[in-house]
Amino acid sequence: MKSLTDIGIRNLTAPTSGQVITFDDLIPGFGVRISQGGTKTFVLIYGKKRRKVTLGRVGIVSLKDARQKAKDILADRQLNGDTEILTTFADAYARYMESYRAKNKASTVAETERLLTRHLKPSFDGKKLADITKGQVVEIIDAIPAMSERTHLYTAAKTYFRWCRRYGLPDILESVEKPFKSIARARLLTNDEFIRVWAACATMGHFGSLVRLLFLSGQRAGQIAALDGAWIDRKARTFTFPPKIMKSNREHVIPYGDFTEQTLDALPIAGLLFRSATGAPFNNWSVGKKSLDDVCTIPHWVLHDGRRFFSSTHASIGTPPHITERLLDHTQGSQSPVAAIYNRYSYEKEKREAIHAYEKHLASLLSWDTT
C-alpha cells in the first residue's frame, strides 16, 4: 500500500493472532494497527526508542485528522528535538495540584487529590511520565469495583494527563471511553430499616453519631464529615455550612431541633467534630460502613440513602417541596433559576417548622417521647 486511504483501511483484514500494523508511505511511522479481533487504530511510531503513540480508533477519528495529528507530533519533535522526557509522575503531580488548588474550591481539590493519591500514585510515583502507558492506567481504572469511584477516577486522571501534555507527551486517555455511568439509585429505606440503622449507630461511637446526623439533617456525607464547631450556633440551633464545603459553592444555613441537639451533646464542641487520625475530616467511609453493616444487616444500602430518606419522609409528612429543597440545598427543583435570583426570602421560619415536624416524626417511629 503506497499510502493509506479510507477504502484501503476498510479492506484490511484481521490477523489470525496478535496485531499487525500497516504503515503509510506518506508519513514515516504513521499507520493503522489491526488486532486479532478486528479493531483498527491509528498509531505513530517515532524516535530512536521507537515510541508508539495511539492517535485514535478508526471510525471515531478520521484518517485526515489522524494524519494531521501525526504530522504535528513529528513537526514538534523536529522543532524541539527528541530529548527524552525525564519528568516523573511525582514531580508533575506536585505541580499539577499546586495549579489545581488555585483554580478550584477546596472540596473539589480534596476529592481529586484523594482519587489520584489513592489509585495512581502507588503505581506511578517513582516512574517517568514517558514510561506510563495507556494500558497501565486503564487497568487501574477497570480494577475498581465501585462504578462511581471508577468514573470519578477516569475524570480526574484524564484531566491530569491532559495537563501533562505540556511536557511533550500525548494525552494517554484521549481515546479511552468514559466508564459506563450506572442508573441513578432508587433505593428507599423503609421506616423499619431506618429504625434498625439508628439502633446500630448506638454501638458505633462517633461514626454512629455521624450517620445519625446524616439522617437528621439530610445533608451530604462530606458536609457532615467536615462539620466544625465554629459552624454551629448552639443558641440559635443552626448549622452554617461555608461555600467551600458545598456542592453549590454557596453558604447554606439550616436549623436543627431537640433530636439533633442530643446527638451533638456527645461530640466535641470546638474544632472538627469528626476528626481522622491525621487531623483531617473523617474519610474512612468504607471501614465505617462495613462495621455498621456487620451490626445492622440491611441489604444494598448506602449512606447517601439517608438523604433520600430525609427528602421522602418530608414529602410524606406534608413539607412543601420548596422547603425540602432549601433544607437539602438543591439548586434545581420547584424553584426556577430566575426565581432563585429574585426570591431572597430565607424561609427560616418554614424550615424550622419542617425540621421540628420531621424530628417529631422520627421520634414517633422510634417510640421516643419528645414532650
Describe the 3D structure.
The longest helix has 18 residues. A hairpin with a 6-residue loop joins strand 1 and strand 2. This protein has 16 helices and 7 strands. The strands form 2 sheets. A 4-stranded antiparallel sheet has the order 1-2-3-4, with helices on one face. Strands 5-6-7 form a 3-stranded antiparallel sheet. Helix 4 crosses helix 7. The chain starts with 5 loop residues before the first helix and ends in a 6-residue tail after the last helix. The chain is of the alpha+beta class and 371 residues long.
Keywords:
three-stranded antiparallel β-sheet; 16 helices
Question: How many distinct helices?
Answer: 16
Tally the beta strands.
Answer: 7
Beta fraction: 5-15%
Shape: elongated
Radius of gyration: 27 Å
- From the N-terminal CA to the C-terminal CA, the straight-line distance is 88 Å
Strand order of the largest sheet: 1-2-3-4
Structural class, by secondary structure, is alpha+beta
Question: Which sequence of SSEs, written as H and E, runs from N to C?
Answer: HEEEEHHHHHHHHHEEEHHHHHH
Oligomer: single chain
Helical coverage, percent range: 40-55%
